[in-house]
Each structure stands twice: as C-alpha cells, then as structure tokens.
Amino acid sequence: MNEQEVDERNDAPDPHGVAADEAYPMELHIRATARRRYQVNEALFQSSGDVVFGNTAEVRKLAHAINDRRAAEGGGAEPIRAGQLYALGLIDEIMHYIVALYCRQVVPDAMAMCRKRIATALGADASEELLRTFSEEFPPRSVYLAGDDVSSYLDGATGGRSNREIALEELMLLGLTNENPASSAFAELFDDAPLRQSTPYAAALSAVDAHFAALPPFGPDQQTLLEMLRAPMRASPHSLAGQLRFMREKWGVLIAKFLDRMLLSSDLLAEEEAPRFGGPGPSRVLSFESLVEDAERFSEDRDWMPRVVLIAKSAYV
C-alpha cells in the first residue's frame, strides 16, 4: 500500500464517532526557536481535519534540514532519521485521538475540569500565565504564522473547543513527550526546560496526573488516562517502533483507523534500522604488467643433453 492510499483510507469515517475536526483541533507543537532555525514547513502543522506529519516527503525534508544544520555546526550530534520523526508525530496524533475518545466515551468535560483543577492548585493568574508562556514557546499555527496575539488566541475557540483546553491538552502531551526516552534524539524540538524554569509547569503536570487519577479508567487494561498514554513508553522505552507495535497490539480496536499508517511507519523504521555492512571494499582490476619484466630463466643444455642415454625399443604386440 503506498502513502497516497494510506492518506485516503485515513479519511474514512471513524467507527468510534470522533470526527476529524472534533478529534484534531491539534498540532504537533515544536518550539518556535526550532521552527525558525530549521525553517519548518507549515504543511507539517496542518492538523485540523488532516493528519499530523502525514506528508512523509516534508518529514524527510525536515530531517534533512536538521541534519545539514547540525553537520555545519559540528559537535558530532547523531543524525536523526525521517522514519523516527514520522513515528514520533504519529504517536503524538494517536495520543490526541485517545484523549478525544476518553472525552467522548467516558468523561465529556474532562479537560474543562482539569483546567479548573490547575487553576485551583496554582492560582488563576499563575495558570493563565502558564498557558500564555506555553503558547509563546510552542505557538499554535494561528499565532506563529498568522501573527495572532496569544491572549486573543486563548480567548477563542477551535473546532468547538476552548483554545485554553486545547493548549492544556498540548501541554499535557508535551510533558509525556519529554518523558519518553525514545524521543531524546529530538529534544531540541520539544524541550520543555524553558517552561520548567520560568513557570509552574511541573506543578501543573502533577495536578493533571492527580486529576485523571481521580477519574474513571479507560482502555483494555482499565488504567487512568495518563497511565494508559505512558504504557507504550514503559513497554518499549528506547524504541519508537516498539511503542507503535505496543499500540497496535494493545489498542488495535480503538485506533483501527491508524493501522495503515502505523504499518507504513513500521516499514520506514525497519528500512532505516536494517543492518548495513561495509561491503568487500574497492574492486581491483587484475594487472599483469609485472610479468612483462620477467627474465627468461631456461637451464643450459650443456649439463644434461651430452650425458643423456636414450634407449629406444620397438616391439610388436
């Protein structure tokens, strides 16, 4: 199945009743500094109604741009692979989808309740400043490209959802991405250190954990929402391919619409991770030039020819 067929099948109706616009008013957030540094194509952030990182050609261009920049600056950083970047984007998208399923099937106002809990834990002003700083460090498409004011963005709505709730969900998944050991190669793109240093980001994540721990469980193993989202990285902490395999095997019924793209991602990763050997070395053309200089070294006849005794005999049989 080629990539175009995968995209077409991804547009099929969702059996769980989560429409594309309803499930994905989301973007895979990359730090504004990284977007500017690597001139990230805006096509990668088309998320409402379209797939995130679905354009594998653009993902390859981004990986190439990152590797070129790192090589030019030196430092010996290990090059990143397009398949890994595609897998990371797909994992983020699936996690958003799981959150959407939870809000539809279990607790419809889970994110609104979470925002209120954070405001209570941190204070209204601190929680508002956290969302504002997050939206500046990891700007949504309308802020980064259209130049919308962050305050105006947070006051608005996308796909029928409050932008504050959307920002909170992105912040929650950003924390999970930074917990994921397999995403360490992309730390520059998703590093949350500025948020930890200047905002009560860590306290907010703790409040989010406590909030969902008090809500009904979800998934095949009946876990809290965040524990369910952490399960793939705990099952395969250093392999994005392993995490996708875990999702496919454990959550297959829930995420059936992603299976084709998960197989595509697995194929990309397998191709990149296949063992490569150095080969037999350079081919050498046979040369006989050295034989041209060889001297003729025949033995002299004087030693044996005069002394030979030859007996010839003929006999009838």
Task: Provide a descriptive summary of the structure in words.
With 317 residues, the chain is mainly alpha-helical. It has one domain. It is 57% helix and 1% strand. The chain has a two-stranded antiparallel ribbon. A hairpin with a 2-residue loop joins strand 1 and strand 2. Helix 5 (82-105) packs parallel to helix 15, helix 6 packs across helix 7 and helix 15 runs antiparallel to helix 16. It is elongated, with a radius of gyration of 32 Å. Mean pLDDT is 83; it is low at 6-11, 20-25 and 46-51.
Element order: H for helix, E for strand: HHHHHHHHHEEHHHHHHHH
The average pLDDT score comes to 83
Round the Cα radius of gyration to an integer and report it. Answer: 32 Å
Low-confidence stretches: 6-11, 20-25, 46-51
* Percent in strands: under 5%
Estimate nothing, just give the exact number of structural domains. 1
Biggest sheet: strand arrangement? 1-2
What's the total number of strands?
2
Q: What's the overall geometry? A: elongated
Largest sheet: 2 strands, antiparallel
Cα end-to-end separation: 83 Å
- Which bin fits the share of residues in helices? 55-70%
- Structural classification: mainly alpha
The helix tally amounts to: 17
